[in-house]
Amino acid sequence: MQPRREQIGIGREKLQRIIELCKDVEEHSLDPFTVDVNEIIQIIREYFPAWEKPEDLCLDAEAINRLASVIKLQTDWVRHRSTSLYADPSLLQEKIRTAGKEELLNLFLKAWHPIVELEQITLNSLSEALRYWAALSPLKERWKDFPSPEFEAAPTSRNELVSQKILGEKAFTEELESLWKELKDAVRLRGVDGKISYWDFVGAETYEETAHRAFMVSFLVTYGYATLEVRPFEEKIYIKPFEKPLRRALKRQLVSVPIVVSREEWEKWRRDRTS
Questions:
Q1: Other C-beta atoms lying within 10 Å of the C-beta of residue 21
Q2: Residue 15 · residue 59 · CB < 8 Å
Q3: Which of 6, 87, 240, 265 could form a disulfide with 195 if both were Cys (CB 3.0 to 4.6 A apart)?
Q4: Which residues contact 142 (CB under 8 A, 6 or more apart)?
Q5: Residues 269, 270, 275, CA angle at the centre, nearest 5°?
């Protein structure tokens, strides 16, 4: 028999899986009938006596609520199919296979509604077409009615290009070098073992600035100024600067490391930092 603590841990994990499965169904990522309702009810009933803490009871209640939503989706599916005269393809295939030739022919004749249309060119329509084309002006004269647009060229300033987001405040290389220096200083002051937490470096006061810093950090890694250390089991990412850019990084195939820098992740980082 499992120890009580181990049983509670397994039960929590199963409830979480049930909730995630039901969420996928609610978001129309899965067919509602992929959920075995009876099996899930058995699991909930099996672990219910073990719950003592309020958070476990809340988790149990959420699983039941999600399962009720799935049952409703299954009911709606059946109701829709029954009211729309839906027929299962396998049943239709069997019915066609067992039907005789005469029966199929009669069904085809009842459902067949041919459309007949007759078109022909007459001497009158040909003469009208000839008169129309003869009355048209030559193509080069008709094009004169559409003068070419004229554009007035004028010089522009760097400030105007920056305001229109065509140029950045700094040159790209200059901004990259500046961020690299900032990364090395941050590692010296706050880092451990020559590296610093990814979010502690890219995180800023606004989400827009955070997204821009994350964008620039991706180029630091691509161009060999720094490298990422990913610890999936700890769900932590570190960034480690190099003292000199590793130019050979551009000569080998790079491995893409997707990092989510969403507004929700940024807000979570800010809450963790202030708590």
A1: 20
A2: yes
A3: 240
A4: 136
A5: 100
